[in-house]
């Protein structure tokens, strides 16, 4: 079913995001149907047309659309154009992938080096940033940012991706920006990470519960030297080891995920942001 045959008022949003490398397309399942005519008694004002149900989030745009727009802006120019045709204002969509790791559609295209997607978003009114300028090779813009706010080149982008990495993703067109940032320095800070212990899978891995619902589960996966945090039905987040069984999620350096073992509770996981906001016990 094409976007052209959809009512803007009637659609079903079925979005499931499995991770930052997988962005299923939005299913738009209902076709537009004309409202039934209502006959009014003679001499009275006609009754208003019967309209589809108004979403609870109205007038805010559907969060599922925002999430999908940011997701597909990493990789899928065709779907980006479809969504922009449906709602051009989705050019400024933003999504929190977890722990305050906010990303815009333009930010997604920028760190992936997708000039075609960035151009489409900008043409629809997306707000440019130093990260999009770096990827697009806009040396004068990047220079002006840094001269106006010295040190801004060290500000991380979504998922903690650095400004230099954005410029590198821009390829040949952005090489002058790469050279400039390397000359200025400070544009590629790396998070301090501690090597995982040899028994990390046994020590940290497993399923943790913090409630009775199926969604009250967190899976910690340890594989290939990386640790991933994923709530049931949510998006996986990579964890950066800080030592002493403490981690922070990529893109959220102020959050702490800690593991502790006890005789009574087994292995317990806590999340602090900055106070403890979740406690979960390993159940499998």
Any key phrases for this structure?
alpha+beta, 9 helices, eight-stranded antiparallel barrel, disordered N terminus, 19% strand, two-stranded antiparallel sheet, 284 residues, flat
Order of helices and strands: HHEEHHHHHHHEEEEEEEE
Assembly form of the protein = single chain
Major sheet: arrangement of strands: 3-4-5-6-7-8-9-10
Low-pLDDT runs of 5+ residues are 1-38
> Strand portion, in percent?
15-25%
Quick recap:
Helix content is 26%, strand content 19%. By secondary structure, the protein is an alpha+beta fold. The strands form two sheets. An eight-stranded antiparallel β-barrel has the order 3-4-5-6-7-8-9-10.
Walk me through this protein's architecture.
With 284 residues, this protein is an alpha+beta fold. It has helices spanning 63-72, 77-86, 105-111, 115-123, 130-136, 139-148, 163-169, 175-184, 200-204; strands spanning 94-96, 102-104, 206-209, 217-223, 226-231, 237-243, 246-249, 256-262, 266-272, 276-282. Helix 2 packs parallel to helix 4, helix 3 (105-111) runs parallel beside helix 5 and helix 5 (130-136) runs parallel beside helix 7. Residues 1-38 have low confidence and may be disordered.
Strand-helix topology:
Elements: H1 63-72, H2 77-86, E1 94-96, E2 102-104, H3 105-111, H4 115-123, H5 130-136, H6 139-148, H7 163-169, H8 175-184, H9 200-204, E3 206-209, E4 217-223, E5 226-231, E6 237-243, E7 246-249, E8 256-262, E9 266-272, E10 276-282
Antiparallel strand pairs: 1-2, 3-4, 3-10, 4-5, 5-6, 6-7, 7-8, 8-9, 9-10
Helix pairs in contact: 1-3, 2-4, 3-4, 3-5, 5-6, 5-7, 7-8
């Amino acid at each position: 079913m094409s976007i052209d045959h959809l009512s803007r008022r009637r659609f079903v949003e079925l979005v499931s995001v499995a991770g930052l490398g997988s962005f299923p397309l939005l299913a738009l399942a209902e076709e537009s149907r004309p409202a039934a005519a209502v006959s009014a008694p003679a001499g009275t004002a006609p009754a208003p047309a019967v309209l589809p149900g108004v979403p609870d989030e109205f007038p805010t745009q559907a969060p599922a659309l925002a999430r999908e727009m940011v997701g597909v802006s990493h990789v899928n120019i065709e779907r980006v154009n479809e969504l922009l045709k449906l709602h051009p204002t989705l050019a400024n969509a933003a999504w929190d992938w977890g722990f305050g790791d906010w990303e815009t559609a333009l930010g997604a295209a920028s760190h992936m080096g997708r000039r075609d997607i960035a151009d489409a978003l900008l043409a629809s009114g997306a707000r440019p940033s130093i990260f999009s300028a770096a990827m697009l090779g806009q040396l004068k813009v990047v220079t002006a940012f840094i001269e106006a706010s010295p040190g801004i080149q060290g500000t991380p982008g979504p998922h903690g991706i650095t400004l230099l990495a954005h410029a590198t993703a821009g390829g040949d067109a952005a090489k002058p920006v790469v050279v400039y940032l390397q000359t200025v320095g400070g544009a590629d800070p790396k998070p301090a990470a501690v090597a995982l212990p040899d028994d990390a899978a046994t020590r940290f891995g497993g399923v943790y519960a913090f409630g009775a619902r199926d969604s009250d589960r967190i899976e910690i996966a340890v594989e290939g030297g990386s640790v991933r945090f994923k709530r049931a039905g949510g998006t996986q987040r990579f964890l950066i080891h800080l030592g002493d069984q403490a981690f922070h999620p990529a893109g959220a350096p102020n959050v702490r995920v800690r593991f502790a073992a006890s005789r009574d509770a087994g292995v317990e996981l806590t999340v602090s942001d900055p106070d403890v906001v979740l406690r979960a016990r390993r159940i499998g």
